[in-house]
Amino acid sequence: MKSPSLKIVIWFAAAAGMAVVTALSKLIGLNASTVGYVYLILVLLVSVSGGLLVGTVTSLVATLCYNFFFFPPLYTLTIAEPANWFALAAFLVSSVTVSRLVVAARVQAEKAEQRRTELETLYGLSIDLFTATNRVGALGEAAGRALKLLGAREGGLVLFEGSTYRQRVISWNGDRPDEIEDLIAGVGRHKASLEFPSPLGRDVYLPLNVGGITTGALVARGTEASKEALESAAKLVALAVERERFIEANAHVAALRESEALKTSLLRAISHDLTTPLTAITIRIGSLERRARGDRDMMEDVTTIAEETSRLRRRIDNLLAMAKLEAGKARPRPEPTPPGDLFRAVRENLPLVFGSRPVTVHVENDCPDANVDPSLALEILVNLVENAHHVSPFGATIELVARRHPLDAERLRFEVLDRGPGLPPGIVDAEGNVATETTDDAQRGLGLEIARSLAGAMGGSIGLAPRVGGGTIARIDLPAAPLPVEQEA
Description:
Layout: H1 4-28, H2 32-50, H3 52-70, H4 82-130, H5 136-149, E1 154-160, E2 167-173, H6 178-190, E3 194-198, E4 201-210, E5 213-221, H7 227-291, H8 296-327, E6 335-337, H9 339-349, H10 351-356, E7 359-363, E8 370-372, H11 374-391, E9 398-404, E10 411-417, H12 446-457, E11 461-466, E12 472-479
Parallel strand pairs: 7-9
Antiparallel strand pairs: 1-2, 1-5, 3-4, 4-5, 6-8, 9-10, 10-12, 11-12
């Protein structure tokens, strides 16, 4: 774009050139044909420097001067000979055509130069983006340089963080009025570019789309670059942003894998180191039981040691099972399992608990079978019953209930009810919802965490609720086994 002062200079130069050519031609006494060629050269020069409008006006003025000063009768705008009419018409057509051709060639040359600059800029941007370090700021710097080379007076790179109105400015050049945030949000919602005139010139807002997801926007304010070049730059920036996110996610996944591998190794080492002394303790307990026969107090102590040793061994086995499930080295094997069978297995695995306090079992008539891994479901119930046993006062009853889920027909619910201290204050929020996490050691022991992990592996969940009259209800929601399809006779 030429400045207004430069345009005035070009118009003045065109007028002065016309006057000089006319005066010199008259002074030297050039013939009409030669003067026509000189005028044509002047039109050519003016068109190259001034453009189509100046060239066309110069062509018309040159035609008038040619007629007025060099075609008889001189110093009039009349033409006596018919041949001169054709000569003047040919000169007018030639001068206007030359003017238009020169301007068209000049425009094409400018466009070619602009495309060359845009291609060089895009190539440089691709190199900058894909050789940058794993730092999003480097992307912003590269995008800023590209916008500057593409002729944008202001603008920058903005990324979205979950919402189009949660915008993080990576780089920005110039002022950033409040309405720009709304325009960027609109581009992100509609996933389409936006272009309109502004006080700076031509503003273009381009979404960063990769795989149908808009991650941000590239803004070019006051730019003269083609829309194709700007869209190409936006695609390069979008790919670079997605690349950086992929690198970060891949690093996070690798760290998680290393953490899981380390956890599994630690659990195996702990299990190995603890299994040997536990085996020795178990052997010594058998020896102590034989010696304690007849001594009631000593027998109670030995029984307590045996119970806690068995509980510790179970915890270690549970931790290893949980680690294998989380690492993907083991998978649950669900099968239809009657709740009554699970409760009988709990009784067999906890004879000391069932022998030291009353435990009631109730399975409702319409309760479906559970579609679970029997060994994992057994460990869940055993851990929760052990928790209830340790928090309940001596002689208090523990209740085991199995029934259909009250809200989901494809699930069933196990409940372990105790008369312990209950949930701590504040565990129930203002809306009456009961949290499943608590800091109380009695309610949030290792057994509860193991039970939650095993239930989650089978598609279930565990929650705690206060019990009327004191105590806690541990609820285990698990998938129900599908009912068999009756075959027609």
